[in-house]
Amino acid sequence: MDYTAMEQYWIWLSSVEGIGPKRFYQLLSLYEDARSVWDALGGVLTPPDMRFLGTATLEKLRAARDERYFYRLFDRLERGGIRAVTRLSESYPAALTGIYDPPPTLYLRGACPLNGERMIAVVGSRRCTRDGQRAAREFGRGLAENGVTVVSGMARGIDSCAHQGALDAGGPTIAVLGCGVDVVYPPENDRLMAEIIDTGGAIVSEFLPGTPPTPGNFPARNRIISGMTDGTLLVEGAKASGAMITVNLALEQGRDVFAVPGGIYSPLSNAPNRMILDGATPVLSHWDILEHYRWAQRPQADDGRRRPGSAALEPDERALVEPLREQALSFDELATLTGYSAAKLNSHLTMLELRGIIEKVPGGLYRSYANMEN
Question: Global pTM?
Answer without folding.
Answer: 0.83
